[in-house]
Amino acid sequence: MTTIRKEIKVNGIVQGVGFRPFIFQTAGRLGLTGFVANTEAGVEIEVEGRPENVASLQVELEHHPPLLARISAISSRDIPLKNDREFSFHTSTAAGHPVTGIAPDAAICQECLQELLDPSDRRYHYPFINCINCGPRYTIVERIPYDRATTTMRNFTMCGECQREYLDPSGRRFHAQPNCCPACGPRLSLLDGKGRVIDDQDPLPRTIALLKKGNIVAIKGIGGFHLAVDAKSPKAVRLLRQKKGREERPFAMMAANLTLARRICHLSRRDQQTLQSPISPIVLALQRGNHDLAPEVAPGCDTFGIMLPYTPLHHLLFQGEHPLEVLVMTSGNRSEEPISQDTDSALADLAGFTDYFLTHDRKIHLCNDDSIVTNLGGAERIFRRSRGYAPQPFSLGDKGPPLLAVGGELKNTVCLVSEDRAIMSQHIGDLKNLAAYLSFQKTITHLRRIFEINPQLIVHDLHPGYLSSSWALEQNDIPTLAVQHHHAHLAGCLWENGHTDEAIGIILDGTGYGPDHTIWGGEILIGNQAGFRRFGCFEPMPLPGGDAAIMAPWRTAVAWLDRTFPENLPDLPFLKGHDPQPIIEMARAGINTPQTSSCGRLFDAVAAMAGGRQTISYEGQAAIEFMQAANNRTAPPYDYEITSTTAIRHLSVQSILRSVIKGISGGESTVTVSRRFHGTLIESLSALANLARQETGLTTVALSGGVLQNRLLLTGLRTHLKKHGFTVLCHTLVPCNDGGIALGQAMIGREYLKRTNSMNQ
Ligand code: ZN
Ligand code: ZN
Ligand code: FE
């Protein structure tokens, strides 16, 4: 009988995710001897036995690794036999650089859920049950190496029973750092608005009763507090809107289970998988017509943002007689601030919103908001990449110098690169809020520490006014590189798709600072990570009042109508109720009126002209409602012109507006205008791509920018370009909005360092 021995090395996120117990158990089942050990580089295995059994172990390793493991490389080689008697653990040889990652936080696994609901289990209804396959990770890690003592669980000493599980290599809790039970672990308590204890013995029934009565309860989760109310109670949802001062922006919800989620939304098979994955994000899905939720949850929206319970505590909220079915679960914060994470800060931040806090004594080291995903065109599109994703590294393939990219201003995330991986942070938010800015600094310090990265370069946005840019420039000892906003969008999209050559970028965005000091946002770029040029853009138009115009689309509409029809403003119904004259004077005189090629503003203007939103209460509202009006269909385009008076092609906004106005004056409904307008953008942008192809021979188009969260535009443009022979690249790993630009900045910085370093050699 032949026997062989193999050495197998595994890299990636393989520590703290149950990798060694998995190998131990698999080797035992296959009758193999040898050992498994954590090393500084990952996990090292030696197995000895019959060739077919060794092969089976390798197949298991590749195809069925533990739930939370992320393998980036496996190598194996034959080595001489050692004739061990058994399969064993070797103690960690970890020293020097930890190149294994910290795992993202993961939703409760099926086994833990069963135990949670089993009256005979010692953790029955214990809200902090977890195991090697599930529970908090990133949000509780303070330092490396990942160990109980370096997490916020260090304050809890394991009881004898938990300790036994922790040391048992055959079990699910072997080296599960947050392992705990009712005897030794964190506890829940219900507090009032002043921080006084209402109930710290069994606060759940009381909490559930409060929610059922229509109260708002702040609930501490994995990455911070949520504000929860019963989604079926219009009164409760209205109260939450009023307290939060959030007029219309849709609230995310948590349904008790998949059956209930399906009663509310149309969920594809892929949506259902996404909802039930360890990431457990908020999924955006079309609403069902006959749902029984309060209309105030998502006024004016045709989608809901829905998630499933992802912590044991969430599951327990939906227990009891006549259980709650759907809760609004919105981030516990003021708008655009980071989610509140500590009980003390939550009490201070959220005191005006609620008198009830369901909290606990397991500290959150780093706040982490819920991720948001939509499935579109056969792929996951991430609108917010945070809990469950961060800090899952992207593998870069080859090694390069360490650097830091600090992202944009809104929806900020940062990206750290070291060796052959890029680590994107959790969602940080709008840096203009002090709390977000502090979280930005803390996150950079934290990620630098846990991944041991000393950047040689800091990459920031070209916009000198962004707080991320000024922070970068204040780091005296580290060189910086400014990157144009839409170049970063393009570079990120190309990297995601493994494309290194030049490509045509169609970047449809709200705002980004251009090298010509105007506001860019509807761009046809030619370039890659090494550089870019502007091939074309939307015709620059005036933005009266700058940012003020963003909140009042009618102002943009008036200024653009005046630019297009300077003799005589067409008499359109939307003008009733507005006083156009001051806007016209301001725009004509150019007072506080920057020029912009923004695609987002074009959407705003056309939506307002067609009778849609005149003012908005949250970002993108006018464009979202205008898109919804089309009901997922496009119609034959309006006339448009592409001019090229300079080296840059202009998609003439005035030509589009002239035909739009003709349509509206001829009695076209908002539905028709929206359908034809989407059709126009798809046609005209494809025509621009065609011109770029004729000039450069390039056949690949990358689609990026926040406007491409518009599902009708994204799918329409993608299909149309493909039909015309283009290879079309879209985002699937990071958001197409500004939540993704740190990745593009990082890739541009990496290329820059590689070239400057090689020049210096
Ligand atoms: Zn588990
Ligand atoms: Zn215990
Ligand atoms: Fe952008």
Task: Describe the 3D structure.
- The protein is an alpha/beta fold.
- The protein has five domains: 4-89, Alpha-Beta Plaits (2-Layer Sandwich); 103-185, DHBP synthase (Alpha-Beta Complex), CATH 3.90.870.30; 188-361, DHBP synthase, CATH 3.90.870; 374-497 and 741-760, Nucleotidyltransferase, domain 5 (2-Layer Sandwich); 503-729, ATPase, nucleotide binding domain (Nucleotidyltransferase, domain 5).
- The chain is 32% helix and 22% strand.
- It is built from 22 helices and 29 strands.
- The protein has an eleven-stranded mixed sheet, sandwiched between helices. The chain has a seven-stranded mixed sheet with strand order 26-27-23-22-21-28-29, sandwiched between helices.
- Helix 21 links the parallel strand 28 and strand 29 (727-729).
- The chain is globular, with a radius of gyration of 27 Å.
- The protein starts with a strand and ends with a helix.
Show the helix and strand layout:
Layout: E1 4-13, H1 19-29, E2 33-39, E3 42-49, H2 51-63, E4 70-78, E5 87-89, H3 110-116, H4 160-167, E6 188-192, E7 197-199, H5 203-212, E8 217-220, E9 225-230, H6 234-244, E10 252-255, H7 258-264, H8 269-276, E11 282-286, E12 303-307, H9 312-317, E13 326-331, H10 343-350, E14 356-360, E15 372-376, E16 379-384, E17 394-405, E18 415-424, H11 434-450, E19 458-461, H12 467-474, E20 480-483, H13 485-496, E21 503-513, E22 519-528, E23 531-538, E24 541-542, H14 547-551, H15 553-564, H16 580-589, E25 595-596, H17 599-609, H18 621-629, E26 642-643, E27 649-651, H19 653-665, H20 670-696, E28 700-704, H21 711-723, E29 727-729, H22 741-759
Parallel strand pairs: 2-5, 8-14, 10-12, 11-15, 17-19, 19-20, 21-28, 23-27, 28-29
Antiparallel strand pairs: 1-3, 1-4, 2-3, 6-7, 6-14, 8-9, 9-13, 10-13, 11-12, 15-16, 17-18, 21-22, 22-23, 24-25, 26-27
The structure holds zinc ion (2 copies) and fe (iii) ion.
